[in-house]
Structure formats: C-alpha cells, structure tokens
Design brief:
The protein is α+β, with helices and mostly antiparallel strands. It contains 4 helices and 14 strands. This is one of the proteins that binds to the 5S RNA in the ribosome where it forms part of the central protuberance.
Length: 234
Amino acid sequence: MADFRLVAEARTEFGKGSARRTRRAGRIPAVLYGHGQDVVHLSLPAREFAAALRNGGSNVLLTVVLDGREQLALTKAVQRDPLTRTHEHADLLVVSRGEKTTVEVPVVVVGEPGIDSIPNHQLNTLAIEADATRLPETIEVDVTGRTAGQNITAGDVRLPAGATLVTDPDALVIGFLGAPTAEALEAELAEAEAEAGIEREESGAAEEGVGQGDVVSEPQDQGSGESMDAAEKG
C-alpha cells in the first residue's frame, strides 16, 4: 500500500469564515488526532489530497508533514459539498507502522454468475482489521458460475494476507435468485390485473362484422351494361 506525502499548515483561526478562506486558498481544513495526543488543527493542499483519495482509495495512507515533522495518518472521515462534490473537511487518524487498525473496505464483484441467476447485493463494504500500512483498497468477491441459492456470506470472502474479518461472518454479502420463467411472469401479470379489476379479452374472439349465422346474398351479375331490350334484339 503506497502512502502519499502531503505538506500541511497549522491552523490558528477557526469557524466558518476561516474555513471558507482556507478553501479559497486551495486548501482543506483538517484535524489530526490519535495515540493520546492533542487534536491538531491543520490544512492540506486540496489538489494533492483529492489525488491521494482518487489513487489510494478511501483508506489511503498519508504522510503528513507539519513543521518539518512527518506523521503517518489514515483518513477516517471526509466531508464533501453535496453539489460540487469538492472536499470540505477531513479527519485524520494517527497510526504507526505495524499497528493494527479496523477499517471498512469496499467490495468489488468480479466474474459472471450462472445462467438464469440474478445477484442481489447486500453489503458494499466489509470491516476488517489489518496492518495500518497494508490496508487493501478493495476486496474482490468472485461470483463466477454462482446459481440460485449459492449465496456468499462475509465468512466466504477471501481476505488479503494478514487481514482479519470484523464483520459478522454470517452476514449476507451477495444473494443469488433464480430468473423468473415466462410462465411465472404471466401468472404474476394475471394476478396483478385481477387485483386491479382488469379483464382480459379472450383470444380468438369473433371479429366484428359478419358472424357465422349471417346470410350473405350473392351479388347480382351486372352484365356488360346493355339493356334487356338490346339483348333480346341481338
């Protein structure tokens, strides 16, 4: 797991006005805490911080440089603007190399399930405990060939070396349902129509117009258009 180096600046002013000025200057207000030390208020370069999250994931390991001193830290919480999605504030947790920490890691599905099998995702992240400097960006869950009923629980997921599962092992990660048949869909539609009071037209119903009991008169021969007198004269 790569770590990203960010040069921080100490913050001595607080409040919304100060935070806005910090952001206008291209920096993000942040706090650094953990290991029993006092909370440190600082700011981080916005562009570099965004790049670290983009390339290192939500549990990115940072090397924060403040007043010439380096400190390893993990991102514990990040606030973003709901409209612009820009970062507004960050909480950083102090960690040490070799230290175990608990984090939520995103689940990534790979492979294709079996034919007529529909995956139903239940968990998007798994909580694990691992070395703070060896945290995975994602955890892959292989669904290749899975059919209806072959569900995957947290305990079934293969974790990276050195990681321990914190999520309940029996928690459902992905369930698999059988694709409905045409008959099942037709029955479901008929039931819904019946509940709504909709009556279906019977197929093969008699078309409008001539019925089986109607008598159709033969058309009269109009001939060539000559009158009867002319025919008799011929």
